[in-house]
Specification:
Blueprint: H1 2-9, H2 17-25, H3 29-36, H4 41-50, H5 53-62, H6 65-74, H7 79-88, H8 91-100, H9 103-111, H10 115-124, H11 127-137, H12 144-147, E1 154-156, H13 161-171, E2 180-184, E3 190-195, H14 196-201, H15 208-211, E4 219-220, H16 225-235, E5 239-243, E6 249-254, H17 255-273, H18 286-313, H19 315-320, H20 328-352, H21 360-390, H22 393-423, H23 433-454
Parallel strand pairs: 1-2, 4-5
Antiparallel strand pairs: 2-3, 5-6
């Protein structure tokens, strides 16, 4: 019996998609619910997302709005999918489903709909809920206000522990998390915080204001979501309170929402480093993917024309010593790689908060040293390779020196450019890899062919 139990607990229970589809097609509601509802909401959401609209319409008849709400709180859909899926439902069913979801999740769904559908669902909700959601929809995207939930537990600072526990029992079923209890005054201003453990072990006659922690780390409704993610990372929070400009508690942000933010921000930075406006979804059609990539590619095309124009200025040098053209891809490629490495380090440091005003100069000097060392090592290696390959020490020294200087300059550029962009209040990831690579192509060719022109008499 013990071995059988351990087998059941070992790993994730796989979902039988074929069986579930068969039960839905046969409209065997009892068996479907039996095999479907034993799974975690995430597995249910994955199945729901995979099946076609005909199967999903049967699911709406087999599952209650409350059960469908659990799926929508676990699912991650893009704008087009959310709109398509919601339109499949009966409007009354969809509105009831939204009413069972936490407010922050409802806001996420409604933000993906057009204004007409959004207003329709708000009109079908009760007045208090609709007003609450409308207020959250009014916050600027990517701010604390736009990702917070209003389902939390707050208690008055002049309450006793006994009365606070009664409040907690009453409000806990509707709260998104109860591990933190936030303390407010009579004006609902945030004054303290308690953990659930603190509340349980305290004397029931003690006053909350005497045992609460007054040092509360909080966010403002206008704070950027990246700043909130840093707070969760630094303090290992499960939830963070959000206040307005008057210190009045407006809501809380939970760790599950911050995980989504971190994933979203990482994807955004990755896409910018790759030189596209957004990461391509594997399901995107070629036209949509091309639309995302073309702006950067066209801009880089014009920058590439500068590189071609520069090479034209050294046409005489290349004609006299054709061997020099052989090493142009090597030099530009190596400098571009070095610049991109420095860029990645700096962008990551800015994003994680490791690089601040005090440490940025230290970081730049470190990158300069790194660029010098890597440049010297690569230059020496290239001198030896070219000498033994082409039996020309002077060409080897030229290529080696050019690579050394190009790597050094590229590393400095890769570290300074994102810092300057960040100083201007622009996302440093916008100084993307392709941009740095193209810029370093220009500088490396100037260095290489400039040195070659100076040494033309020796070649």
């Amino acid at each position: 019996m013990i071995e059988e139990k351990n087998e059941k607990l070992d790993g994730i229970l796989p979902i039988n998609e074929e069986l579930l589809r068969k039960l839905l097609i046969e409209e065997n509601i009892d068996e479907f619910r039996k095999h479907f509802l034993i799974h975690h909401a995430y597995e249910r959401a994955q199945f729901y997302e995979k099946v076609g609209p005909d199967i999903r319409r049967i699911m709406y008849n087999f599952l209650s709005p409350e059960e469908m709400a659990e799926i929508y709180e676990a699912i991650e859909l893009d704008e087009e999918e959310v709109e398509d899926f919601i339109k499949e439902m009966d409007p009354a069913y969809a509105a009831e489903m939204l009413s069972y979801m936490y407010t922050d999740d409802v806001v996420d769904v409604l933000n993906e709909l057009d204004e007409e559908h959004r207003d329709t669902f708000l009109e079908m909700m009760d007045e208090e809920t609709a007003e609450e959601i409308s207020e959250l929809l009014g916050y600027e995207e990517y701010t604390a206000g736009s990702i917070m939930t209003t389902e939390y537990v707050s208690i008055q600072e002049n309450s006793t522990v006994k009365s606070a526990m009664n409040v907690l029992r009453h409000e806990a079923p509707d709260a998104e998390t109860i591990y933190y209890v936030f303390v407010v005054d009579e004006m609902h201003r945030l004054t303290g915080v308690m953990s659930l453990r603190d509340l349980i072990v305290a004397d029931e006659d003690a006053l909350i204001r005497d045992i609460m922690s007054e040092r509360v780390v909080y966010a403002k409704v206008t704070d950027d979501q990246e700043k909130i993610a840093q707070i969760f990372k630094d303090y290992d929070f499960l939830a963070c309170p959000v206040v307005d400009e008057n210190g009045i508690l407006q809501g809380i942000i939970t760790v599950d929402d911050i995980i989504d933010v971190i994933d979203e921000e990482a994807s955004d930075d990755y896409s910018k480093l790759a030189g596209i406006s957004d990461v391509d979804d594997v399901g995107d059609n070629p036209f949509k993917a091309a639309k995302q990539r073309l702006p950067w590619l066209v801009m880089l095309l014009f920058l590439g024309m500068i590189t071609a124009s520069l090479m034209g200025q050294f046409e005489e040098t290349l004609e006299r010593v054709a061997l020099l053209a052989l090493f142009i891809p090597l030099i530009s490629g190596t400098s571009g790689n070095s610049g991109t490495q420095a860029l990645a380090v700096v962008v990551r440091g800015i994003a994680t908060g490791e690089i601040d005003e005090k440490s940025k100069f230290k970081m730049v000097f470190r990158e300069m040293g790194t660029g010098l060392i890597t440049g010297l090592v690569c230059g020496i290696v290239v001198v030896g390779i070219v000498y033994f390959w082409k039996s020309s020490l002077i060409v080897g020294l030229l290529v080696g020196t050019a690579i050394c200087c190009s790597i050094f300059v590229a590393t400095i550029a890769g570290s300074l450019i994102p810092l300057l962009i960040h100083k201007l209040g622009i996302d440093p990831a916008a100084a993307s890899g392709p941009f740095i690579t193209t810029l370093n192509d220009i500088t490396s060719i100037l260095i290489y062919l400039g040195l070659a022109t100076l040494l033309l008499g020796q070649l």
